[in-house]
Amino acid sequence: MTKLLDIPYSRILVLGLARSGSAAARLLLANGKQVRVNDVSANEDDVMVEDLKKMGAEIVVGSHPLFVLDNMELIVKNPGIPYDNPLLVEAQKRDIPIITEIELAGQLAEGSIIGITGSNGKTTTTTLVNDMLLKSAQSVKVAGNIGVVAAEVAQTLTEDENLVLELSSFQLAGIQKFRPKIAILLNIFEAHLDYHKTMDNYQEAKFNIFKNQSNDDYLVYNADDSTIVEAVKKARSNKVPFSVTNKLENGVWSNGESIYFRDEKIIDLEEIVLVGEHNLANILAAIAAAKLSGATNEGIREVLTSFTGVKHRLQFVTTINRRLFYNDSKATNILATQKALSSFEQPTILLAGGLDRGNEFTDLLPYVKHVKAMVVFGETAAKLKTLGEAAKIDSIILADDVQHAVEEAYAISNANDVILLSPACASWDQYRTFEERGDMFIQAVHTLV
Hints:
This protein is of the alpha/beta class. The protein has helices at about 20-30, 45-55, 85-95, 100-110, 120-135, 150-155, 170, 195, 200-205, 225-230, 275-290, 295-305, 335-340, 380-390, 400-410, 435-445, and strands at about 10-15, 35-40, 60, 75, 100, 110-115, 140-145, 160-165, 180-185, 220, 240-245, 250-255, 260, 265-270, 315-320, 325, 350-355, 370-375, 395-400, 420. It has three domains: about 10-100, Rossmann fold (3-Layer(aba) Sandwich); about 100-305, UDP-N-acetylmuramoyl-L-alanine:D-glutamate ligase (3-Layer(aba) Sandwich); about 315-445, Mur ligase, C-terminal domain (Protein-Tyrosine Phosphatase, Chain A, Alpha-Beta Complex). Helices cover about 35% and strands about 20% of the residues. The strands form three sheets. It has a nine-stranded mixed beta sheet with strand order 7-8-6-9-10-11-12-13-14. It is found in: Cytoplasm.
């Protein structure tokens, strides 16, 4: 196992178990650290807890008492725990550094790290980069926010392997020295303010992806996003822009017919099977990282002519009686749904709704002109109904859940309609995850046959 060589702390609090916390605790214990674990929802008799006890960890479960901070030199926290948690507020008063497990992964990885972040498109871009490298006979592993614990994977990485990491703002907010060889910054828009509190905090977390880079590293960035263009001026790394509209001498770009890496033609757009202009931006970013990592044009083209999308992200499900069903359950915010709606021109029935975070949905108005009907559900159903009425959409149906929404949408659909699940909301009012919500959609669609 690769050792942690640059953690100058002996007594460490792991805050929050789950997969990343458990992995971090095991890693720290294996490296001779004194580890205290604190988790609200775990129980003393949980297998995970018992295993960590056997390894020598001190366990405190059921609450976050302030005494767990006593004598601690570092906190490794679960990314989902916000910084306004009283325990973390007190830790900051005591000047105890707070990191996430991604920082540990960065110190463990012997190969090159490709880090990918943005408000939208992370999973698609991460998958594309991974596939392009694999098709080019490169060694690669994937981890991070995509569902695999980065520190676990990093321990097994060899010098000739690439580690492709999908990185959330929650993870990036807790880094000190983390430094990807290639950083990708896809886009920035207002999101997760319930966690970060201000847009400045959110942007700062995202921009951490390049803060430790040097002129030996690369920063792939969206030249069509003015906020990003301004932010990357302070980056020390080699900048590689991408644009869906403008020719770039030192980047990846499209002229509306083909994609180029610098002056080298990579592929014609008509050969690419993944739909949506937002996905074109993801494709350009992925090509940049892949080419910088040694991918071949043949490997890149093989991926782009066959890749139809990530599950739950504008995923084509099936066609039933000439109705086309798309699962975009990962659209947990308004911008994601805007992009999904922009991917189609034919009549669309939109299925939307979920957790109410206080958002209004008026920003969707310019994007629903081709929406012939809406089926809404969850806590935001009433707000989305108001949106539909403002857009003068004739048919607006309130459904109990996603399964009911599929049934209602199919009942009012016609041949050549798109039936699109793109909720514009998180899933937690009715479903544990957006994956669970998307799986229900897929299951409901297949029961129509």
